[in-house]
Amino acid sequence: MGWWLSRALLLSAVAVAAVAQQQLSPGFYSATCPALQAVVRRGMARAVRREPRMGASILRLFFHDCFVNGCDASVLLDDVPGSFTGEKNAGPNANSLRGYDVVDAIKAQVEASCNATVSCADILALAARDAVNLLGGPSWVVPLGRRDARNTSANAANTNLPPPDASLSTLVSMFRGKGLDARDLTALSGAHTVGQARCSVFRSHIYNDSSATINATFAAGLRATVCPFTGGDGNLAPLEPRAPDAFDNGYFRDLVDRRVLLRSDQALYGSGGAGNGTTDALVRAYAANGTAFAADFAAAMVRMGNLVGSGGGEVRLNCRRVN
User: Fold this and answer.
1) Which of 92, 108, 225, 315 gives 161 a disulfide partner, CB atoms 3.0 to 4.6 angstroms apart?
2) Which residues, if any, are the signal sequence (predicted)?
3) For residue 314, what are the β-bridge partners?
């Protein structure tokens, strides 16, 4: 059999497998790829050991994928000139999303174990779970069976992802549009207990907002060291300065103290407006009880991970391009 015929049959099998409705189940690959979760865990452990910040990056990659047409790995697709401009270079993602090479490496290992079986979307969902756990956060059972998108949209990324200066009412509305409530919003925002942000996305918060919105000493320190009035756009600061690589409830203590980088984060506490009574109470509860935060975060990650779009799709052999 010629190589071209073998590949054609392989791609045909992948396409046929993808037409079924996406029915997510933790045991989806139990028979077809039993080593899957161990392979993903090893890949993420290597990545986080090499660079702890990568755990936050993979988590963010998953969030940005799920909020644009569901968790379908569309964010991993490279642009195709003349066909589509993808999500990678959309405003919220360009120069900030990272970790594509980590997903590629894990995908290669998975393919070596069980060829043309596991979607990139499921690999990313598992990698995000392991990223959180490897940084000291909770673990959870990940329902599997997602399919990979065949196209992607920069416009959808530009309109579906919350901006860093979003008001609470905007955040509540955007999450509600995904079937997620104020508890999900508050818990998922706790992902900012790890990771970093560029000066360009928090400059307005530390220069233009009052001491009622941001701690004055905290803002002055950032202005003096990381984020000058002009220049320094790419300079990084930790989203949670107490323990930037530890997945804990420090972010919520920072919210209470008004010591967070992003205006959209501080909007969850003390900002007034729609949903504020609920988010204020949740912030206080999570600041006081890390176990409660961990449980609600894990549950919210499962709910967000269930956003699988309209169904269909395929199992990509390369996460960066359609088959």
Assistant:
1) 92
2) 1-20
3) 148
Query: Percent of the chain at pLDDT above 90?
Result: 82
| DSSP three-state, residue 4 | helix
Distance from CA of residue 274 to its chain's centroid? 25
> What tens digit of pLDDT does each residue of 100-116 get?
999 999 999 999 999 99
Query: Is 122 among the annotated ligand-binding positions?
Result: no
Residue 162 assigned ligand-binding role: yes
Instruction: State the Cα–Cα distance between residues 148 and 134, nearest whole angstrom.
Output: 26
With vertex at residue 106, the alpha carbon angle to CA 100 and CA 109, rounded to the nearest 5 degrees, is 145
Q: What does the pLDDT average to over 177-188?
A: 96
Rounded Cα–Cα distance for residues 184 and 57 (Å): 20
| 3-state SS class at 86 | coil
- Break the chain down into helix, strand, coil percent, rounded to 5: 50, 5, 45
Residue 201 labelled as part of a binding site: no
The pLDDT of residue 312 is 72
- CA distance to 45, 88, 134, 158, 197, per residue, from 54 (Å): 10, 17, 11, 23, 13
* CA distances to 11, 246, 251, 271, 323 from 1, in Å: 15, 52, 58, 66, 20
Measured distance CA(31)–CA(34) in Å, rounded: 6
205: annotated active-site residue = no
Is 78 assigned a ligand-binding role in the annotation?
no
SS3 category, 59: helix
- Given the residues 64, 129, 203, 205, the one annotated as active site: 64
Least confident of 49-58, 268-277, 305-314: 268-277
Q: Name the band, by pLDDT with cuts 50, 70 and 90, for residue 18.
A: very low
State how far the alpha carbon of 124 is from the alpha carbons of 44, 119, 167, in Å: 10, 9, 29
